[in-house]
Amino acid sequence: MMHIQRSTLLFLLLNCGAQALAQEPVEPAINAEEQEMVSWLDEREEEMLGLLERIINMNSGSLNSDGVDAVTAIFDEELRELGFSTSRLPGELIEMPSCPGSDYSVDLTDHLLARRPGNGNRLLLMGHIDTVFPPDSPFQTFRREGDMIYGPGVADMKGGLVVMLYALKALAAADALDEAAFTVLLNSDEEMGSLSSRKYIEEEALEHDWGLVYESSGIDTMTRQRKGIGQARLVVTGRAAHAGGAHEQGLSAIKELAYKIVQIENMTDYESGVTVNVGVVNGGEARNTISPCAEALMDLRYPQPEQGVAAVERWQEIFNRVYSYAVDGGEITTESYINLHRPPKIPTPESDWLLEKTIAIGRLLGQDIGITDSGGGTDGSLSQAMGLPTLDSLGIAGTGAHSNREEARASSLAERAALSAVLIRRLARE
Ligand SMILES: [Zn+2]
User: Fold this and answer.
1) CA of 158 to the centre of ligand 1 (A)
2) In the chain, what are the domains?
3) Are 242 and 357 in contact (CB under 8 A)?
4) For residue 163, which of 53, 56, 359, 416 is within the disulfide window of CB 3.0 to 4.6 Å?
């Protein structure tokens, strides 16, 4: 099914971490049928921008279920028009420990699964509907200035959803959709770490030949490898007391959490690539009350799977030990939620081949795309870890994700859709 060019493989092995491929592409020139798809897409740039504007202006923060469902419905309808049969995969309520009054459970809505049978290879196309911007964020609307477009999710990754859809539309217009068997999986919870959709992605990964994820291609780069990601939520419970009248009777949860945070932050080791960040802390009731509860939310990045396992063990040690008081177990209690929600994306010869093939096709189309590594994760890490060779940055050329500086290049919509359409057509037969 898969043929790796010897010279190509050798080149990649010799160039681990290289930021650009110097070798000439081995891909055949763009043929007339492919050129027709490219032209078809070129003529639809305004239409693509119109759809993007419409879905950017619909808030779909991960926990805004109504908004996520509304955007999902648009893609459901579009995919059915292309002959896909669609269904919803149930979301999930993920319960996490919390201090009283700070419910941190996350209620994740359903995901879209769309299938279309075909003759060639089985391709799994993935993207996420959700964004990091809740409905009360000041960053809500689409804006265009020349070739630049701005808005929440324009790069991460509503632009990519439009790229994916229009690649499929171009294939349909060329009567080429039957050349491959497609599954499209659009999840609602990627920005929450795919806590509910992970199982579906992993199941689907086993049933396909190639994985294509439409996260942003940065400033014209595609990502070769990524760190794994973990998260932990920690809730420390102590004993409240009056800070003046009965100080000695209190057990401060904030004090204990502070000791733990120092230990947790000390896990960062730039040399090995492991980083830990306590990103959110919260706790206490009043200035003059010894705090009965304190909580923290933390992030872990790790290059190799065993480093993730070791970090979880260290977290558990820190969570289980009382640092700040000489008390027996039970007096200060710690509850936690720990999840290594993304494995590292470690390149394989097959995923390197897919990356190089894509870049070579890009070059034939006049698109100059480089290669980078990333500390950020995508759902492609989940599918790749299951053995599905996956390319995870086929989306729009954009930057500034997760900030109000998020922007993308409008003309990259049609460019990347053309790249995908040609890639899919060629992958269908590989
Ligand atoms: Zn994303």
Assistant:
1) 9
2) 6-225+344-427 (3.40.630.10), 228-342 (3.30.70.360)
3) no
4) 416
